[in-house]
């Protein structure tokens, strides 16, 4: 499955930025692909929250991300961008992370410059590695990939810990080391987005975390600025979590689900999403080829 090259072609041929939804589960990935998305982001935050009910503060690592990636890859054929946090160590750890995620089906792998334990880019209390350490880890990621089509996304959180000048300098250094896409997380104004677009080379990634530090920006506005990738890493998670919190509160209070009858997905629709028809058709085709039973 040459999904890395598919992703590169998608980015090269896109008319404006490619909008990519984030997921933490295979079911979300199925829904995203069914909606027409041509690439999906396996989000560290969404994986931590959906699969383990913990915040994005370094409580999960490579094993959990890889498990989530493999589940999503089994459910979808589109290219997958994967949040690999800090790479989980220094040069050798980063290389091992790249190898394992490539083997599990990653089309693009994102590595950031925070110290471990990392924190969500829109939380306070972060720290970043010295620039020399950050640069060598990106160098390791680029050199470690076994498929030249695999994209390396280099993220910096230095906007929050230092300033935008430092973040832009790091992004430029990452680009010089061969990173395919640059991601300055949590810019805080339209003016900062404009500077990133104008001063950072190569493919640029934006992150839309609603109610986070970056102002709400439309796809058309990102196109005008010159960003190539726009991630929505936790939107589906937060919509769904609000819904099930509200549903459980209603169920506990009322004792039945009747008030949700107009909002709940039908069993047939859910079975269609999880591929029941295809499985049943496969079973029928296999059983139809059974010959007579011999004594």
UniProtKB/TrEMBL annotation:
It comes from the Bacteria. Pfam families: PEP_mutase (PF13714). GO terms for molecular function: oxo-acid-lyase activity. InterPro entries: ICL/PEPM (IPR039556), Isocitrate_lyase_ph_CS (IPR018523), Pyrv/PenolPyrv_kinase-like_dom (IPR015813), Pyrv_kinase-like_dom_sf (IPR040442). This is Carboxyvinyl-carboxyphosphonate phosphorylmutase. It comes from Amnibacterium flavum.
């Amino acid at each position: 499955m040459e999904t890395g090259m598919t992703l590169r072609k998608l980015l090269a041929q896109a008319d404006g930025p490619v909008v990519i939804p984030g997921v933490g589960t295979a079911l979300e990935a199925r829904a995203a692909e069914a909606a027409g998305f041509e690439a999906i982001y396996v989000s560290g935050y969404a994986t931590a929250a959906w699969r383990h009910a913990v915040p994005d503060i370094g409580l999960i690592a490579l094993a959990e991300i890889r498990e989530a990636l493999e589940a999503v890859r089994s459910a979808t054929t589109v290219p997958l961008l994967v949040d690999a946090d800090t790479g989980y160590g220094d040069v050798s750890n980063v290389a091992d992370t790249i190898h394992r995620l490539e083997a599990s089906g990653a089309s693009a792998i994102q590595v950031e410059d925070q110290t471990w334990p990392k924190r969500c880019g829109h939380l306070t209390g972060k720290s970043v590695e010295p620039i020399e350490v950050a640069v060598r880890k990106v160098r390791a990621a680029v050199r470690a990939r076994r498929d030249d089509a695999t994209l390396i996304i280099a993220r910096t959180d230095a906007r929050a810990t230092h300033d935008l000048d430092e973040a832009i300098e790091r992004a430029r250094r990452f680009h010089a080391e061969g990173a395919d896409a640059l991601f300055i997380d949590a810019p805080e104004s339209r003016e900062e987005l404009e500077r990133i677009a104008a001063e950072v080379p190569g493919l640029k990634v934006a992150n839309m975390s609603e109610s986070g530090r970056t102002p709400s920006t439309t796809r058309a506005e990102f196109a005008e600025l010159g960003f190539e990738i726009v991630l929505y890493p936790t939107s589906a998670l937060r919509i769904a979590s609000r819904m099930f919190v509200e549903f459980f509160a209603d169920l506990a209070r009322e004792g039945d689900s009747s008030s949700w009858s107009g909002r709940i997905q039908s069993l047939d629709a859910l079975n269609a999403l999880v591929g029941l028809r295809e499985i049943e058709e496969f079973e029928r085709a296999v059983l139809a080829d059974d010959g007579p039973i011999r004594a």
